[in-house]
Design brief:
Blueprint (H helix, E strand, L loop, with lengths): L1 H20 L12 H10 L3 H5 L5 H34 L22 H45 L10 E11 L2 E11 L1
Antiparallel strand pairs: 1-2
Helix pairs in contact: 2-5, 4-5
InterPro entries: DUF5683
Protein name: DUF5683 domain-containing protein
């Protein structure tokens, strides 16, 4: 009798545990927010791509910014070099002669006023070209930043888009209503 009571009690407790464990709980999937992805990407480039689980894009974002940053720095160095050389040749002070470093292999005879003037104009053109290139790269960096934000936003909008192979097209005969006549035709229904 004692064994029967003990085994019945164990059986009841086992059923209670099983009953509690077998309840199906539907997990709510958090909604993927395009607004959140856009803000993340605006605050820190690449963070929106991480939020969208597109990890492979993050190195591309930072390689792009690194490359553009390098060209901003290089063009700014060129601009500074040519600006100082142009200022030195324009002031006619013999103590300021940084422009002579840019007269490669004595190509320009700087003692000749005509050639000195041509060299001065060439330095000014080089200075303006370097400034223009630097400014264009800065604008390109701003455009790349905007592209990063747009990419994160579009990716977030398409995050739950079904790209499975379950694209179906069904052809079936059916009636076609044309004016007052009833004709037989083919209907096509595409589901994607």
């Amino acid at each position: 009798m004692l064994i029967l009571v003990i085994s019945t009690g164990l059986k009841t407790s086992a059923q209670k545990i099983t009953a509690a464990d077998s309840v199906m709980v539907a997990l709510e999937k958090p909604e993927h927010s395009p607004r959140k992805a856009t803000i993340y990407s605006a605050v820190l480039p690449g963070l929106g791509q991480i939020y969208n689980k597109k990890y492979w894009k993050v190195p591309l974002v930072y390689i792009g910014f690194g490359t553009l940053g390098y060209f901003i720095d290089w063009n700014n160095d060129q601009y500074t070099l040519y600006r100082e050389a142009y200022a030195d040749i324009a002031d006619d002070d013999p103590n300021t002669n940084s422009f002579e470093e840019l007269n490669f292999e004595g190509r320009w005879n700087l003692d000749n006023p005509r050639e000195r003037n041509q060299f001065s104009e060439a330095l000014n053109r080089a200075k303006e070209t370097a400034r223009r290139n630097r400014d264009l790269v800065i604008i390109s960096t701003a455009a790349f930043y905007a592209l990063n934000i747009i990419d994160a936003s579009v990716d977030a909008h398409l995050f739950n888009f079904d790209i499975s192979d379950d694209l179906t097209m069904k052809w079936m005969p059916g009636p076609v209503y044309c004016l007052d006549q009833r004709l037989v035709g083919i209907h096509c229904r595409i589901r994607f």
